[in-house]
Amino acid sequence: MKIALVTGAYQGIGFATSELLMEQGYHVIMADIQDCGEHLPAMAEKGHKASALKLDLRDNSSFAKIAADIEAEFGKLDALVNNAALLVDFGISPLDIKQEMLRDVIEVNHLGPFLFTQALAPLLIRSGAGRVVNVSTQVAQLAQLSDMNSPLFDDICAAYQTSKIGVNANTVLFAKAFRDHGVKVNSCCPGWVETDMNLDELPDYGDDARPKTPREGADTSVWLATLDEDGPTAGFFTDRTRIDW
Ligand SMILES: NC(=O)c1ccc[n+]([C@@H]2O[C@H](COP(=O)([O-])OP(=O)(O)OC[C@H]3O[C@@H](n4cnc5c(N)ncnc54)[C@H](OP(=O)(O)O)[C@@H]3O)[C@@H](O)[C@H]2O)c1
Q: 190 vs 12, 15, 113, CA distance in Å?
């Protein structure tokens, strides 16, 4: 059986990613700072295979034990979806952001997933065809942020953007490190998705714009988590299409 671990699985895009992977027959380890155990009865009723993992990405001292527990129970990991993230600094400029907020966001969004991937690397290699998906955002696409004509040029969230540029660095670095081990690593942007993360302060995407549902937003993550041998590595994708960094 294929085993996947999805972070931020309690709600939003992570929950949808988990369900879509279960629908493809994966056993999904649903990891979140919140208690995913609440979802297990409903998953079992649908005939899905899932387990719950309490994870705080700021607590990297817990990662070795998590890896040991997964090894003991499953012996391998076929897909890791680094999806959990914090967005708490919408509109805050790099001139104003407080160090504590910057550190917290970078720890959850960039440093945590880096060390979590490192801790789970032996299990991904053991899969023989491990897949890592790093959920990023076009709001951190340097090609757009540095283009004064881009509609994203004025979207500022100093900590979130810094952390997600770091996520894209994780993708390129781990893709190269895993090159000879059959493990593919890619970044994706889910697009604008209706979740708790963005309900308070939404960017202006125009009158006709509508957010995606979480299941629509999860599509590219699931595609990258289930790539076959010919699939890409070290890329950045949205709607299953490659985009610039
Ligand atoms: N929604 C969008 O439009 C959009 C657009 C572009 C990219 N994205 C990306 O898509 C991914 C999923 O976003 P979403 O909108 O589904 O977010 P969400 O609904 O806020 O879900 C994120 C989950 O991660 C959890 N989490 C937060 N801090 C954590 C930590 N330290 N350790 C473990 N889990 C933690 C959250 O718990 P709490 O609720 O307790 O914090 C929450 O359950 C993120 O990487 C986000 O940056 C989203």
A: 11, 13, 17
Does any domain span residue 72?
A: yes
Q: Judge whether 98 lies within some domain.
A: no
Residue span of the structural domain in which 181 resides: 3-85+109-137+163-189+215-242
Helices (H), the chain: 12-23, 40-45, 63-74, 99-106, 112-127, 142-145, 158-177, 214-217, 219-225
Which amino acid residue places its CA nearest to atom 13 of ligand 1?
13
Please tell me if the CB atom of residue 192 comes closer than 6 angstroms to any atom of ligand 1: yes
Q: Can you give the CATH number for the domain in which 79 is found?
A: 3.40.50.720
Q: Is residue 198 part of a domain?
A: no
Given a cut of 60, whether residue 199 has pLDDT beyond it is no
Ligand 1 contacts CB of residue 13 (under 6 A): yes
How many domains does the chain fold into? 1
For 69-107, write each residue's pLDDT tens digit. 999 999 999 999 999 999 999 999 999 999 999 999 999
Residue nearest to ligand 1 atom 29, measured at CA: 33
What pLDDT digit, counting tens, does each position of 151-188 carry? Answer: 888 889 999 999 999 999 999 999 999 999 999 999 99
Q: Is 14 in the pocket of ligand 1 (CB under 6 A)?
A: yes
Instruction: Please indicate, yes or no, if residue 202 is contained in any of the structural domains.
Output: no
pLDDT of residue 203: 54
8 C-beta closer than 6 A to ligand 1 = yes
Tokens of 42: 């409903």
